[in-house]
Amino acid sequence: MARRVWWAALLGLLGVHGACPGYNSQTTAPIAATDNAAALEAALNAITTGVTVVLDGGSAVCGNSGVSSKISFLNYDGVVLPFTVTTSSNDLVLTSASLDDGVGGTAAAYGTRFPTVSANKQSLECSGRGKCIHTTGVCSCEATYTSSNAVGLASEGTVGDCGYRTSTATPVCPGSTCSGHGSCSGAPSYQCSCNDGWAGFDCSLRRCPQGRAWFSPPTVPDTAHDTLVECSNVGLCDRTIGMCRCNSLFEGRACERLACPNQCSHRGKCKSLRQLASLQEANGVATAGFVYGTGFNAMATWDADTIQGCHCDKTLMLFGEAPRYTAYDCSSTPCPSGDDPWTLNQANEVQEIVCTADGGAIALSFRDYTTKMLPFNAVAAQVRNALESLPTIGRVQVTMASGALCSLASSRTTVSFVTNSGALPSLVVDGSRLTSSGAGVMVFVVRSKPGTTEDIECNGRGSCEPSTGQCRCVLNFATSDGQGGPGILADCGYTDLFMNQGEIKATLLLLLAQECIRASSMKEPVFGTVNGTRVPRGVGVPTLTTDCDDVLFPPRIDKNRQSTQHAKMCIWMPDRSCIAAMDQYYLPGARPTPSGTFPSYSFDGSLVNITSVDVLESLPVDSSIIYLTHLGISRLGNVLDIDPFDVDETQLPILDLILHNNNISSIQSITFPHQLRNLSLHSNNIRNNAVHLGQTMSLKTLNLSFNRISSLANLSLPPALETLNLSGNALSMDLSFPSTAPLKRMDLSANNISDTTKVKWPPLLTTLYLDGNNIQVLFLRFTPTLQHLCIGRNPLKRITATKKMLDHFKTYGRINDPAMCPYANASYPLLECSGRSCDSAGSLPVYIVLDTAADELLFPIKQEDSRLGTLYISIVVFCAALVIASVAVWLEWKRRVRLNEDQVWHREGTPGNRPTLVDSTELFNDIRFDPTFIPFRIPSAAVSRERLLARGGYGVVYLGTWKPDKGPAVQVAMKRLLPEKLAHIHNIEDFMDEIRLNSRLQHPNIVAFYGYTWTSLLNLSMVNEYMSHGDLWTLLQQDRRSHALPWNIAAHFRLNWSVESTAADVARPTDPSAGLLDVSCQVSKERLLRDVVLALAYLHSQDIIHRDLKAKNVMLGPSYKAKLTDFGTSRSCTNDGDETMTAEIGTVAWIAPEILKGVRYSAKADMYSLGVLLSEMDTLEVPYSSVRRRQSIDDSSKAVDVAKARIAMLVVAGELKPEFTRSCPPCIYLIAQRCLAYNPDDRPSAAKVLAWLNQLRQSKPTLE
């Protein structure tokens, strides 16, 4: 590059200022008018390099006739910006007013500059002959190129570019002719011209989508964001796949949208400014809104579609109001609001409906929700029920002057709003369907008394907990009925100066449970018919019993069964009617044992609208596990160890009795089954002095969580009890545990415990849960046997311990172990410790104190026996054992050397329900002693365990490292059973079956099985291939924000259902494809789906049914190759090709109807799950999520269980299928619908689906 500067001055000082790269905005030293070329060149080279100067018209830089200075830039490629010439004084003498600037124009008398030779050297990254590694800024050059000296690129140097060619051979275009994504220019430059979407010197890199620049210098006054750039300047382009890796605050293919925070906490929808402007509300009523961003490209509203915020969903409260979730990310749940109970002279809103008509129907609306059509002559109860069914209305009182909603005489219906506070919007009436035989139809609403009650959060008598939406009432205030009395509104509107906080909490829990039972009813009860000579039984209160002989019931589910059937249990009502409580078809998928009995019975009153049973009289004889929940049972029969209505009166073989969510107040003076090992009374009404189980000899586990127990003083526990759950009660200070029970595990979470310093803990305690209490100072004074302590969600300020206590706890115990504790990651902002007396337990600081008495109590010193005989005996024993001990120590040392690395992961212990098993336990399918499995055994010393990867319902998966005998170390995934699952042998046998099955599978799309490792049954682990990109569900959730994972399928493509395709038909990566938009796309939903179907076809060819196919069980390897995993529920097909199983296997949303019905099934059940998986991949949501949203189901475990049951019943009836978006490719939608066929015979095989997917990759399109 050369530039010429004209100097027209006789004398003076000049300065030359450069603005191009290398000048660094610097100014030269002063240049005299009489300086020669060498002086000017030296001044310029002082601020840059590679500059030469030639003077034309004189020997000095200035002259009377004008001197031209030709400045050449040897080290700069491309165009160099012009100089700026300034004077340092006003002493230049001009000899002419203007001079010819050399290009036909005029210029100032001095300092004019213009290019004489335009630059045509390219300024290319790595000189266009290498690839830039952007993380280091280093060029990776082609084989025949290296760094140049940058002076004309004529020789090798140290600049770091790829500008010097080292070979004399004929050059070629890079990337073996531009990587197949561009064209070669040929001689002499041999450069690649890349196709659209491709970049790089060899066209091997993908370009990323462009969007409006979020941050770029304005180029026009008052205008910005008008430049299109890659990833909108807020993301990094991953050029291997052409996807933008957006900053966490942005989303979209080009990062063009501001992401909504935390995905609106799944409690709202992400909306743009344009959309939010049209969704405005007034007093809970939607308005017409307004328009923002009339023109899509108007710069004044450039952010109309790029700035996004959360539009929060409405939440359903028990009293009917539907406020929206709050906070910028919809994470806060609104608390109930209402009138302050201590203010006076407030009145409820009263409105009147005036209606003149004598025919037709009417509908009422309130805050955007509308009732069903009501007949013109509807009575007050009908109107009240219709209004209270709306989610925006709580409770109302309805009165009618004429007894009907409408009449020819103009009926007036008064509606008084009981629980909706403040001034309310008017009811809206739709009378378009009313008719009149008189003068005409007239209907309108009059606000006769505006509401003056206060609408204060928590009634102004409590604080709101935004994370849960629960009011924390101040002393002597509790939940009300909206009118000042006690009720279930969960507010603070009721005053009781004599109620303590424990009673308030327990009352609220009970009322809420009862209300949830009432609201979640799904079916009507099934009434029976008395047969033969049986006389209907007369009872004073509803009684649940086994006295059901000669009562016949219609079938519940399978209409093709016999017309009537018997029930194992039934409910006799005071009106002498009989309701079925259990029958053999009620539990889907229940399989009889060889003796014809059933392993478990389940009856949930919330599912059949029965919540008022008073007495549980007896239990059936042929079950080992019984669930009787949500029935309102308040009393138990005194004799429950036999069935008094069974002629043999044999002892009941019941092992587990679950009586959750009832109203039982006492369990004393009751004879339970003598084999009973697990009794669960979660969410009942048991108080102090009501637990007497000293004679229940075999009971191992007792669950009394969420009752009303505040004292343990008179608690009588079974002599064999090992696990006790007292969470969710009202325990505070009185923690005196009976010494008769060998308790090992206790749950005291969610109580009001504030001090544990003086508690005498059970001597064999190994696991203790203290989460969610009020402990501020924790003294680690626990029994030496304690292994796991959970203390999450406490307002901890200090943890103290003696040095001896802490050392012992560090060796044998763990605090907040993630594998055991639900709130292991809880934070403690007030917890602190400073100074020399501080230590730590895990990540928590511990203050060391001196307490000799506590140490001696926990670690007693054995007193020396003063008797001389004992000393002699001790010496003899010591001498006799010395030789044996020496040998044993040597053997132990050898063993420890061998197992040194293994001790970390296999000696952590197994707290919780530790099984009473030893290594010699005989199992049906024990792989430990199977000689055929010797090749799969991995020594425990060869495996080291690292961080936790995942935790499921049955097992945990850890990241580990396996060091094989030959070859480098390999990262692996180690799967083992949860500690509580080890209590049952059948769980261990199932796990061994899973290992056996994995050892059989070898396919590129199945997660590879390496082997198994163990030192005992407690730590048996399966070692599999580690999948670094996690599961498909995680990728789909990321795509909800970035929308960067395409189907890559042409919308116009149509499948030929009758034509088979083979592997030979599949297009090569460079061939044009009939169905794919880009055959070279490395990551797409189509490619992931194809991988899954390949794995499924392989499994079915091996007569294996997966039985739990879903996105979470599809893992992704380093190159995003999909592989199936989790064969814990998989089974080999039987000889006749089908199987029967219980509905508990798999996950409800993905299970085929035939499995839910409990009938025989085949591999076609997996094809149904594949159809559900396609819905996941299309909607990016859990299947049937829209059903939950439409029905405003909350996230509580009970509500979710009820929703699952409702979904399962609709699927069984063939009335519900997964949904798909409008953007789903038509061919994928049609494949999904065939997979989701109700009749298994109508579903395609995996091989058939694979053939259809192959058509997408055919080189020639097929006809439909």
TrEMBL record:
The keyword Disulfide bond applies. This is TKL protein kinase. Residues 169-204 form the EGF-like domain. Gene3D superfamilies: Laminin (2.10.25.10), Ribonuclease Inhibitor (3.80.10.10), Transferase(Phosphotransferase) domain 1 (1.10.510.10). Disulfide bonds join C194-C203. The keyword 4Fe-4S does not apply. Residues 943-1263 form the Protein kinase domain. Keywords: Disulfide bond, EGF-like domain, Kinase, Leucine-rich repeat, Membrane, Repeat, Signal, Transferase, Transmembrane, Transmembrane helix. One of its GO terms (molecular function) is protein serine/threonine kinase activity. It holds the Pfam family Pkinase. It comes from the Eukaryota. The chain crosses the membrane at residues 871-891. InterPro entries: EGF (IPR000742), EGF_extracell (IPR013111), Kinase-like_dom_sf (IPR011009), Leu-rich_rpt (IPR001611), LRR_dom_sf (IPR032675), Prot_kinase_dom (IPR000719), Ser/Thr_kinase_AS (IPR008271), Ser/Thr_Kinases-Pseudokinases (IPR051681). Residues 1-18 form the signal peptide. It comes from Aphanomyces invadans.
